[in-house]
Amino acid sequence: MIISKPFLTVEQIQNRVRELAAEISEDYKGKEILSVGILRGAFIFFADIVRLIQVPMEIDFLNVSSYMKTETSGEIKIHTDLREDIKDKDVLLIEDIVDTGLTLNYIRNRLLSRQPASLKICAFLDKKPRRRVEVPLDYIGFEIPDEYIVGYGLDYDNKFRNLPYIAIFKKNI
Ligand code: PRP
After folding, report:
1. Contact residues for 135 (Cβ-Cβ < 8 A; gap 6+)
2. Minimum-distance ligand 1 atom for the alpha carbon of 101
3. With 0-12 CB in 10 A as exposed, 13-18 as middle and 19+ as buried, what is 67?
4. Which of the residues 38, 57, 106, 171 could staple to 76 if both were Cys, CB 3.0 to 4.6 A apart?
């Protein structure tokens, strides 16, 4: 098992988070947001970006999973649902990575049925080459190639989430 040198450095991450937060603050001027972090992967990105968004907000979390080590099971499990009623609220989903798109597609449809005033998605990483279902992304941090990455909240078998940067993970070298 090896971890590469930073694929995205702490500085690159911080700069991009700042830009995204500025864009979101501008787009939601005069409104109030319900920011929803998708656990566990998004916990660090979520904590970073919400502190930079200059719009009043409520926060909530969804705890979902589908991955077993490096592969998606294709089945999305909801471990903890939202605590807030999202009807008529402007919801901003905050996710660490979109890979196949199965997780976000499932969550998006589930939340849209609860009739929010609006529903937008902010994903820090977009791994487009792996997409199996299209999901509309409103804010994207970085597009990345088809490499298994860890750090900044992202894991391999629930490890490496606390790396402050993003690295490529190789199982056997
Ligand atoms: C990861 C990640 C996304 C999802 C993306 O979650 O945090 O939620 O996979 O993959 P997809 O686009 O192929 O569905 P995971 O199931 O590993 O749970 P975790 O966030 O708790 O690590």
Report:
1. 98, 101, 104, 105, 108, 121
2. 12
3. middle
4. 106
Helices 43-50 and 10-27 meet at what angle, rounded to 10? Answer: 60
Ligand 1, atom 10, residue with closest C-alpha: 99
Q: Where are the domains of the chain?
A: 9-146
- Looking up tokens 């190789």, which residue turns up? 170
**Which CA distances in Å does 43 have to 13, 62, 115, 124?**
14, 11, 25, 12
In three-state secondary structure terms, 114 is coil
Distance 30 CA to ligand 1 centre (A): 32
- Residue in this structure with the two tokens 């656990």, named with its chain if needed: 39
Q: 9-146: which CATH topology?
A: Rossmann fold (3.40.50)
Q: Band of the pLDDT at 49, cuts 50, 70, 90? A: very high
Work out the number of other CB atoms within 10 angstroms of the CB of residue 143: 10
The pLDDT tens digits for 72-113 are 888 999 999 999 999 999 999 999 999 999 999 999 999 999
Position of tokens 């700042």? 18
